[in-house]
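Researcher: We're teaching a course module on how sequence relates to structure. For the next exercise, students receive a sequence and then see the predicted structure as tokens, so they can try to spot secondary structure elements on their own. Here is the exercise chain.
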Amino acid sequence: MKVTSDIEEARSYRQWEYTLAERIDNLSDLSPDSCIYRVPAKLRNVNESNYTPQIVSAGPFHHGKSSLCEMEEYKLRCLKEFLKRTGLALVDLITMVKNWEMVARGCYAEAINESSDYFVQMILVDSCFMIETICKATTKDNEGKFDYLSMPKIIFDVRTDLILLENQVPFFVLNGIYNLAFAESTREMSFTELSIRYLSDLMLVKDVEKIINSVVHQVTSTSQVKHFVDLVRICHLQSSAELPVQANRVDSIVIPRAVELQGAGITFKKGSSNCLMDIKYSTGLLEIPEIKVDNYSKYVLVNLVAFEHCHYPFNTYITDYLLFMDQLIDTRRDVELLARDKIIEDRLSESDEVSYLFNSLAKEINWGSEYYFNDISQHLNAYCDVPFNSWKGRIKRDYFNKRWNSATTIFALVFLTLTVIQTIRAVISM
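Model: And here is the predicted structure for the students to work with:
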């Protein structure tokens, strides 16, 4: 009986070995070009709608979903319009995308098991739809013409869908088709500039022209842009191309919220930079670039954070910015303070919504091993630990923040000084 049992066990081991070896052999090689990811479950489970397209799919991850099928016919109509407007032959586009197929497949961080025909057609249709949509939204060619995508709500919903990490087409494909369709001598702008103008309404930073001038100069090759999420990230970091690789290992550094910092003598000032990371501190003065916060800000922030989590784990600049702002903003009073100092342009209906936005987005983010705002946080805490700074700040806030208060305070100080002098003289004369 024991011999039989040993033989059965050996057969089981061999079967397991064969099955596991087969699974290993079927694994596809990881591509160094991977840049489009599924959002990690830990982030996605907080609020799936932040990462899930509501109207239109782009790329393979959400293609074919029943909730998005309505747009498939519209995509084909956009392709038809694109061919008519540019005079391109469909076969030339198919050939071009077919030549890019393997590189395009490698941009997705998981194996795409669809056939070559299916993949090429999907990428071609989605790309032409995106280019046609962007051209309609950013040029005057479509003025006065009714179009499904001309409805304001649809415009923003489609735009929002196109900045979701799981809903991307490689940028080099979009740029290549655009350059084939519009010769450099005839087009008004590059596809990089066109894309920034299209996405600008979703960005937290406001000065579009400044962003464009900086990014177009900074991005010397379209290969530096992975996709739209990456482009949005570049735009928010654009004035600091030399951001250092984060190297200081730290535990979480907690700082007081904005109202408490003000109470400790810290003054807030709107920064002139468009780069979110250009937060500066100098002896009681905290300078922060202005941002606008609206209904679409959460989609931008959470997808940038998810992208950094997957692709830039050692350069989590946007994530660190969100964590820093989350500490500054805890209640509506913090929002109102930062809005008064022109650091936040609140486009939401209630200040409470802004505080909830930052607090809820940061809730599931773990502090990394590096934190970009480590030094600033330490300086802020050190300043707040000095009682004299708090007293000085209170005097300045309560008595010198208005012209009338300042005049009254000066008069009171002069009166007090004269009283003291008079008292001293009276004592001496005795």
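Model: If you want an answer key for the exercise: The chain has a mean pLDDT of 84. Residues 403-429 form the longest helix (27 residues).
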